[in-house]
Amino acid sequence: MKKQMMLLLMLISIVSMRNNIIAQGEAAVPFLLLAPDSRAGGLGESGAGLADNSAAIFWNPAGIAFLTGTEVGFTHSNWLPQFNLDLFYDYATYRQYVEELGGSVTASVTYMNFGEFVRTSSVSPDPIGTFRAFDAALTLGYAAKVHNDWGLGFNFRLIHSRLSDQGTELEKGEGVATSVSFDIAAMWRPEELFYIPGLGDMGNRLSLGFNLSNLGPKIYYIDQEQADPIPTNFRLGLAMKLFEDEFNSLTYTLDFSKLLVSRGDSLTKKDEFYEAVISAWADEPLSEEIRDIVTSMGFEYWYGTPEDFMFAVRTGFFYEDPSYGNRKFMSLGAGIRYDLYGFDFSYISTDLLPGGEKNHPLSNTLRFTISIGWGALTQQSHGFPRGI
Which residues are CB-neighbours of 191 under 8 A, at least 6 positions away? Predict the structure, then answer.
């Protein structure tokens, strides 16, 4: 069983591909950082400024404050395909505007499957059974406008991690843990005249947002003294509509994100989340803190009209400093909208970039998303950018 658990822990580390923070086991349940949907996945995994569909519950729940109507979505992806293992995740979302509440209620379910493992005893390599390992999260949220140009969003999340259903003969307890977290987010999307030199009126063409996600207590499996923080994350995003006419639109997105977990060493007690929100910005020299910020960006082009068929193509770029994970990849994506229905897919490639790493675990990752939206369309409620 020990060999299987070592493999599982290795895979969990690769899931996030974060720097020595994750490698040292200083942040648990890294599946909470996975970009869950195909649309943002095609934009280099950027979405905090766009946030105009039900997947905004992950990227920036405040963006849902500008939406009306109802939407459901479902995403599936085989994860780390280079390993040819039974790794996949599913992601389902729901949002609905409730006039009596003055905003929208939201929900999402994330399921990360690590596959089936063979259980052995400490005295013999012979199999004595099997077990499945997975991580899952249920998120409930609310988003509402506090001003024509401002929206706020809040999420509460229940996290469940099941790495093993029981310990070995020498271990007490189970490899099962449960915790909670919450998110706080804001979005600024000006509707009135707003001029930027060289760009003209950006009213209803510019969006800025931030999301402080996964604020919550540490999580532990067997020994509470070895509890690890969950991956609290700060994300700041921008979306700008560069061009739009009756049939065409082009939008640019840009995100900056930083993991707010104090580093320390394996013997140092890690800060609680309410301390790490501040200390994680200053536990290294400023130059190192800046290098630890992940940058992602993308372009989305739409052709068509909301009353008819719409088609989108997307591309993006994701960059992480070599000393802090070294994830660098391009993403490609496409989407269609017809009546109530939408379909999106995205593709990650690490070898399209000059000097890109071939056979990287993330390369060739595909995401597929199906969505259904009814009621008021996004562009009818705030006009930014086109989507369900």
Answer: 148, 149, 203, 204, 382
Residue 26, amino acid: E
The pLDDT value recorded for residue 228 is 87
Distance CA 9, CA 4 (A): 9
Q: What is the pLDDT of residue 246?
A: 87
All structural domains of the chain, each given as residue ranges with its CATH number in brackets, are 2-381 (2.40.160.40)
Amino acid in position 284: E
Question: Would strands 328-338 and 310-319 be described as parallel, antiparallel, or unpaired?
Answer: antiparallel
Alpha-carbon span 247 to 5, nearest angstrom: 53
Nearest Cα to 320, choosing from 295, 298, 297? 295
pLDDT at residue number 220 = 85
Strands (E), 123-280: 127-147, 150-164, 175-188, 195-196, 200-201, 206-215, 233-244, 248-259
Name the amino acid, one letter, at 324.
Y
Q: Are 322 and 28 in contact (CB under 8 A)?
A: no
Element (H, E) at 290: helix 286-291
- At 196 the three-state DSSP class reads strand
The answer to whether 74 and 19 have CB atoms below 8 angstroms apart is no
**Given this model, what pLDDT does residue 318 score?**
95
Mean pLDDT per 10-residue run, the chain (388 residues)? 48 46 60 94 96 96 95 93 80 96 97 80 65 92 95 98 68 79 96 68 84 94 81 96 91 96 64 86 86 96 89 95 87 94 93 66 88 69 43
Can you say whether the dihedral through the CA atoms of 78, 6, 226, 162 is positive or negative? positive
Contact between residue 346 and residue 45 where contact means Cβ atoms under 8 Å apart: no
Q: Which residue has the tokens 């997105």?
A: 253
Q: Residue 208's pLDDT is what?
A: 95
Residue 81's identity, in one-letter code, is P
* DSSP states along 204-221: TTEEEEEEEEEE---B-S
